[in-house]
Amino acid sequence: MRDQASIDIAAAMAADGGPNTTVDQTIRRDIADAIFDQRMPPGTKLSEARLGELYDVSRTVVRKALFRLASDKLVDIRPNRGAIVSQPTVEEAREVFEARRLIEAAMLEHSVPAMTPADHKRLRDLVAADVAAHDSRDRQRMIRASGDFHRGLAALSGNTVLCGFLDQLIGRTTLIIAMYQTHASAACSHHAHDELIEVIERGDVAAAQRAMHQHLHDCEDQLELADSPTENELAKMLGARGHRKPIDTP
């Protein structure tokens, strides 16, 4: 009789259509982890041939992993130019934070009233890991710990669909931080996480939602999300030279 691990692997292979399923999942997970840890910055070229060599698989298997990453919005596949790690625009960055505020606040409405002391302890443990990451001054560890806190809090809602959406948004947030962080900014504050738990432990849903909104606004405000300058703004930046010939905007 097969053990449970063998049954699970066989089921996964059958569901995805072939014996290479676990390999493309490994490629997908490895690339995602490298993005989450900021070891693979936005714009990194993902060569199908090179990845095939590294994992000793066909380009078809690599392509399957890349298409899945593209569906997660972590990779952009450009016709005739291959795949690169996504480079979110300023507008996309703002939309991601807006979506996170909506989703994470909504999940609190269901999770806060149902939380047990054991759930509170689980959140405290996540914050402790967050604090340890900040104390280590390891930026990759800090970003991962911060994401783990938000994922762990969301999981307590019991809504797996929203958790899936949020996981994708957290991954995109990592790319946004890599592109738009200021010199002084860091991953979201563990102090804010600690304050959020205090409100949650009181069972105050509305206050928890306000705290989450403010926390995510603060995270967004740490980033340099300035729009690209217009032609007239470019003229102003150039001083007198830029004003010799005014540029009309449509």
Automatic annotation (TrEMBL):
Record has DNA-binding as a keyword: yes
Example GO molecular function: DNA-binding transcription factor activity
Keywords on record: DNA-binding, Transcription, Transcription regulation
Pfam families named among the record's database cross-references: FCD, GntR
The UniProt record lists the keyword Cytoplasm: no
Coiled-coil regions listed in the entry: none
Organism: Salinisphaera hydrothermalis (strain C41B8)
Domain HTH gntR-type: 21-88
InterPro entries: GntR_C, TF_FadR/GntR_C, Tscrpt_reg_HTH_GntR, WH-like_DNA-bd_sf, WH_DNA-bd_sf
Protein name, as recorded: GntR family transcriptional regulator
PROSITE patterns: HTH_GNTR
Superkingdom, taxonomy of origin: Bacteria
SMART domains found in the cross-reference section: FCD, HTH_GNTR
